[in-house]
């Protein structure tokens, strides 16, 4: 079940969505974004083969209808179904406007690590590598620090990176960063957060454009 911090991040990420876009939502925090999107003309895509994903009430769950994270979903009016190869063809062909991904770490070059933790057995890369290459814009959502309080926005990722493609926007529970001209730019503080908190909890260098 999502907590308040995850909901806060998802709600902020929803503001990045524009009318008419095709959006792919990754596993974790991104799955919460759809309920905060106010534009009606937005089409949610899942790489296991569906365009027109919507939320669903518990009493209406179809166990055979799930997203890439194996979570139950509903189908919008006019939704379409296709096989996995066609779905990845959409991604690789540049037909997904925005990918919103959950990540483990981000580095100074805005490259992400989201698929492997050395020594641990986790779900694997899934469609993240393809989305990083094929999506026109990539937004990542994450908590700013790990459970032990260490920064997750690092000079260099300590986990294997997912792709050499830099993501465009990073949204955490503390701040929002855009990657512009090879640098991370701090563009927004989350409600109640100070610049000092962000500086203390961010290992990577960034440009403060709030001044």
Automatic annotation (TrEMBL):
InterPro entries attached to this UniProt entry: 3-oxoacid_CoA-transf_B, CoA_trans_fam_I, NagB/RpiA_transferase-like
SUPFAM superfamilies assigned to the protein according to its UniProt record, in alphabetical order: NagB/RpiA/CoA transferase-like (SSF100950)
Gene3D superfamilies per UniProt: Glutaconate Coenzyme A-transferase
Source superkingdom: Bacteria
Pfam hit, one: CoA_trans
Keywords: Transferase
Family classification: Belongs to the 3-oxoacid CoA-transferase subunit B family.
Protein name: Acetate CoA-transferase
